[in-house]
Amino acid sequence: MGLNANLPGGCDGPDGTAPRPMRADAQRNRARILDAAEVVFAAEGIEVPVDVIAEKAGVGVGTLYRHFPTKEKLCESILLDRFAALTLDARALAGAEDPASAFFGFLEHIVAEGAAKRDLIAAVMGAGVEFDLEVAGVKDELRDAVGVLLQRAQAVGAVRPDVTAAMVVSLVGATCQAAAHTDVTPACDLLGIVCDGLRPQGAA
User: Fold this and answer.
1) What secondary structure, in 3-state letters, does 106-169 show?
2) How far apart are CA 164 and CA 4, in angstroms?
3) What is the DSSP letter of 201?
4) 20 DSSP 8-state letter
5) How far apart are CA 173 and CA 170, in angstroms?
6) Is the overall model pTM greater than 0.85, yes or no?
7) What count of Cα atoms within 13 Å lies in the side-chain half-sphere of residue 143?
8) Tell me: the pLDDT tens digits for 144-154?
């Protein structure tokens, strides 16, 4: 799992060169940590203590820290995959015959992911976590992919012309965050209101 699954912490060495590949047992431990973190973050959010993740992975806290010096680095490794996967999903819709359905359908996809995986909400919102340049770059790629869908939807008059991709990502992130803090209104209902606001006045 992860774009840098075979590298310790997913980083270059101190001199800028690629580190040596990990032993097989170290790779297995790292994969177990990432898998456990995926489950725990999805269920409890990124605020969960790392010892909970280590216990679920069946490793010691020291082993976890050898692979990921901070919880932020662990979260980043997961988010690299998340953003990369969402970006690929968005790019796959770039040539859709119905630009409006592609755009609004992708927003529904992001909200569904956010509802199932709570750490994605914080990532999209950029709340409380400082990302390195690699994660920031992948996040920018997602925004750009959303921008392509947005521009195509705007070209056919399905979305207001004053809307930007950054606005869309922020609105969807806020929708996920709001839904996560209330049991009254489902995320899909909130997104419906947001989408109505994105459409030109008088649009169906």
Assistant:
1) HHHHHHHHHHHCHHHHHHHHCCCCCCCHHHHHHHHHHHHHHHHHHHHHHHCCCCCCCCCHHHHH
2) 31
3) T
4) P
5) 5
6) no
7) 20
8) 999 999 999 99
